TrEMBL record:
This is C-type lectin domain-containing protein. One of its GO terms (cellular component) is membrane. It is a single-pass membrane protein. Keywords: Coiled coil, Disulfide bond, Lectin. Residues 24-65 form a coiled coil. It is found in: Membrane. It holds the Pfam family Lectin_C. Residues 99-213 form the C-type lectin domain. The keyword Coiled coil applies. GO terms for molecular function: carbohydrate binding.
Amino acid sequence: VKVKHKATEQTPDTNNSILLEKQVMNLTAENHSLREKNEQLEAQNKGLETEKENLTEQIRDISWNNLNISRSQWSIDAYCPKENNKRTCKPCQNGWDHVESSCYAVNDAKREEWKTWEEAQENCREKSSDLPVVINEEEKKNVSEKSWKYDGNKGYWIGLRVKDGKWKWLDGRNLTNSSWIDQLPSDGHCAISVQNEGFKSVNCNEKNRWICKKKAVVV
């Protein structure tokens, strides 16, 4: 007797399951492919970032080199100006007075350009200098002679201010000669130099003219 096997019937649920499995396999393969592409893009991006950093560093180096060259040329032109195709070097650049081992610039700005003590110091720093730190009586006399009196009690900012309840110079030293300024230390006060009247205490936010000082170049 021959037995006939009944063919397996494909139900709708079975067909849907097979279709879903194929879709999952396709999506898995597609996801794997996308991951590989993403890894490749990340590697390329990392390479580009490294290249960008290298180029940025090269540009920075070139900029610094150009800046240093410009500064060197400025120093040469400032201290050794060329006249008739010949350079003559001097201890101070044009506009600065040479006294002993220092150079002084008296800033006789117009009233609308007067500065507070902090602003004056910042201006001096831009010129590679500072408000004057006076060392001795001789220098005090020299600074005083440059501090022409004008508008009553107005004078020129110097590198002396009240800090921690004491008169201190910009270099951190205390004012040791109390006869140089009559007023007692008062917070928020700085010193001006007035010709023939010595140093005077005024509010640091007051607007005044100022003097800058820096070392002279040995030539």
